[in-house]
Prior knowledge:
Blueprint: H1 4-9, H2 15-22, H3 25-35, E1 44-51, E2 65-74, E3 77-86, H4 95-113, E4 123-129, E5 161-164, H5 170-176, H6 179-188, H7 192-205, H8 209-225, H9 233-236, H10 243-267, H11 271-293, H12 297-307, H13 313-325, H14 329-337
Parallel strand pairs: 3-4, 4-5
Antiparallel strand pairs: 1-2, 2-3
Helix pairs in contact: 5-6, 6-7, 7-10, 8-10, 10-11, 10-13, 11-12, 11-13
Amino acid sequence: MKTKAMKKSQPKIHDSGYKKLFSNRTIFQQLIETFITEAWVKDLDFSQCETLDKSFITDHYKETESDLIYKLKLRRKTVYIYVLLEFQSKVDRFMVLRVLFYILSFYMDYTANYKRIKKLPAIYPIVLYNGKRKWSAPTSISDLIEDEPSLGAYAIDFQYLLLNEKAYSKEQLLTIRNIVSTLFLAEGHYDIALLEQELLNLYEQESDKQAVSLFLNWFRQLALYGKVSPDDYATLDTVYRTKEEVQTMLVATLEQERQKIYRKGQAEGEASGLAKGVEAQRQTLLQFIHWRFQTSEEEQKQVTEQLAQINDLQQLTQLSELFLQAATLDEFTKQVAAFLPSPVLNQR
């Protein structure tokens, strides 16, 4: 049984990796330009934007969230965008109080450093939520304060923008097709068959290869280990230089994830689950073959007929590993032939 101490020591699923993603200028710009509908967004100067090396999260919430503060120019004025990355699964009804506290802490820090200012800069507050539960917390502080007595002009007026990743439909995200929308797609509509092609298309279309490589590496870490911890920063910084490198990485990652799922089902000893695992493994391998070698209808039919004769999960798994090493379709089909059952000779 897991103790509270054990649970606390386990790495969180997003934490540092998520903050690193949105610390990238291209990814941050896509977040703002795609999902913020304010009129002034079009006038922001992203070429000079920078993150501030500060955090206003209290120790009580350090394990459940992270924050980013971006400094930008808007028509010669300095503005700030505050992004709170919310990771906890349970929705906090008083989230608006926390966001307001962070904003006020920023202003207190700002006035301590700029003593001669007459006005405070504008700060746009965003909460980016990726939890499983439906968001039910008020985004306006007025909804949390009693109506009586009426405070009129003296009432506190503050609210934040909620970006709930899972609130966007698959159709909406597939229409956008940038790094952030694909991130939301992976979080809210995790479909391996869909993601494998979307991720490859993303690499081909996105001009900032460093940004898309950062995201691809984040996806790889999440798929294989269910986490992106500070120790994984080195792997997040790998930059893919060709479409073939990306394709090989995706095939290997998604196949390893499939194998992990099948091994779990096999260990549970479910006969029906094992049969489903064999068929799922076969279909996954066929998808990868067509994707990597761009097989014709006749070629795909031939390899489908070959794999249909193999009903052993271990053999299909071994073929998946050989597939990753094969340079051509012919080379792979020769390897498949070695696994086929011997033909039964007719006896008189």
